[in-house]
Specification:
The protein is α+β, with helices and mostly antiparallel strands. The protein has helices at residues 118-123, 133-137, 156-165, 183-190, 231-243, 258-270, 279-293, 337-352, 426-441, and strands at residues 2-5, 15-21, 28-29, 34-39, 44-48, 53-57, 64-66, 70-75, 83-84, 91-92, 248-256, 300-302, 305-307, 314-316, 318-320, 323-325, 328-329, 366-370, 389-403, 406-420. The relative contact order is 0.10.
């Protein structure tokens, strides 16, 4: 029997949450079988069985554990333990209550364990096993279930639904294993019916009345609403605190994007939809080419040394529900605009679905953040700790400008470059930003 520990799935991972077991307790699994979904500080990943054998689940769905803590045991052949009588060499199976192991699903309440008899209480052996770590360890009641902060025990899905609806989980009686609140319990409250009674309720006890609606302030937000940060939001908050220690300065420059708009129109005719570039894809390509010419602008500070990157890996800020992620375009300086466009679409789509691997969110040397599609003219982006700079991109708008002594209307976009002053200085950053602007104003240079 070997122990399966909470794996370290990224360089920054310190703890993980068991979102969903893909196999039930007691199942026979083979090495490499998809076993469990783990939520890290950056992504949700499926972890495979490290070896074959019978699965014995230790950590229940929703449990958060430090890296290295046990989440399951795998081993054995699934046969009952045998005792040697010592007289004839025959093996006997000790008397024990039959146990039926079932997979725990968030949307299907597990059967309630019957009340333990005196013998089971004395020996510590549960009279029924619902497949959770708690039921294997011993008999408990819903009142004993909760996390380290004292919050009611609930699945991540149920907690999320309740938070969005402004429902206090303390008012819900769970029907999950050991009184854990599951999706069906929250939906029952939302539907105006009482949540099902907990599994330990006495027979004939009338169902609890539905909780009164939470008082609401002006608008649609409940008064005094308290919503725990998601793991992603906790990571963002921690990174932003680190960013406050960076001595940064910001440079701005207007870019004439009239020729860029014409190039995009031509490419829309020539390329399939999946490869049709946005303005942001051209910006990523321009930044990557500029970094290739000026790698010092993407150097990393390591103690008293500046380390020049070995690859031009550009991060792209992507908005996802409840937060922000920065997937990475590897070797962006060696990829054409259509290839960058296809890769950004793929990364953004999988990022919003929570399907990115941690390695796809690490290692960028400079980032691009674009809010132009939201009607923002200009803004200053916060440097991602570990990077030298970040480029903020506003929208392109028609403005009167002077060209060859004549006032004409051109499409103009504002770029704002936030720079770590420990890595680069004003003149160096200005030269770099000027090169990015030059490439964008002559888009043919980005297509070679």
């Amino acid at each position: 029997m070997s122990t399966m520990a909470m794996p370290k799935l990224s360089d920054t991972m310190e703890e993980g949450t068991v979102l969903r077991w893909l196999r039930a307790d007691g199942d026979l699994v083979a090495k490499g079988d998809p076993l469990v979904e783990i939520e890290t500080d950056k992504a949700t990943m499926t972890v495979d069985a490290p070896e074959g054998g019978v699965l014995h689940i230790i950590a229940a769905e929703g449990d958060t554990l430090d890296v290295g803590q046990p989440i399951a045991e795998i081993g054995g052949d699934g046969a009952p333990a045998m005792a040697d009588t010592g007289a004839t060499g025959a093996m006997e199976v000790p008397d024990a209550p039959t146990q039926e192991i079932e997979a725990v699903r968030d949307d299907v309440p597990a059967p309630a364990p019957p009340a333990p008899d005196k013998q089971s209480l004395a020996t510590g052996i549960p009279t029924a096993d619902d497949g959770t770590a708690g039921s294997i360890a011993g008999v408990f009641t819903p009142a004993e279930v909760g996390d380290a902060t004292g919050r009611p025990a609930a699945s991540p899905l149920a907690r999320g639904i309740a938070a969005r609806a402004g429902i206090d989980l303390a008012t819900i009686r769970g029907t999950g294993p050991g009184g854990r609140i599951v999706k069906a319990d929250v939906e029952a409250v939302l539907g105006g019916s009482a949540a099902a009674a907990p599994s330990t309720a006495a027979a004939g006890e009338p169902p609890a009345p539905p909780p009164p609606p939470a008082p609401r302030a002006t608008g649609s937000w409940p008064a005094g609403r308290r919503t725990p940060l998601t793991r992603l939001q906790q990571t963002i908050a921690r990174r932003m605190e680190q960013a406050t220690a960076i001595p940064e300065f910001v440079l701005e420059r207007d870019v004439d994007t009239t020729a860029l708009a014409a190039a995009r129109a031509d490419l829309r005719v020539a390329l399939p939809e999946a490869n049709r570039p946005s303005v942001n894809d051209f910006v990523i390509r321009a930044v990557a080419m500029a970094v290739r010419e000026r790698p010092d602008m993407a150097s990393q500070l390591d103690g008293d040394d500046l380390v020049v990157p070995s690859s031009v890996d550009v991060g792209v800020a992507v908005s996802v529900p409840g937060g922000l992620i920065v997937p990475v375009i590897r070797g962006a300086d060696a990829k054409g605009v259509p290839a960058i466009a296809a890769e950004v679409r793929d990364l953004a789509g999988r990022g919003r679905a929570g399907e990115l691997r941690p390695d796809e969110l690490e290692g960028s040397v400079i980032s691009v953040s674009n809010l132009g599609m939201f009607g923002i003219d200009r803004f200053h982006a916060v440097i991602n700790p570990g990077e030298a700079a970040i480029l903020a991109v506003g929208r392109a708008v028609a403005r009167p400008v002077v060209v060859d002594g004549h006032v004409v209307v051109r499409d103009v976009m504002t770029l704002s470059l936030s720079v770590d002053h420990r890595i680069a200085y004003g003149a160096e950053a200005a030269t770099f930003l000027g090169r990015v602007a030059e490439l964008l104003e002559h888009p043919a240079a980005l297509l070679v």
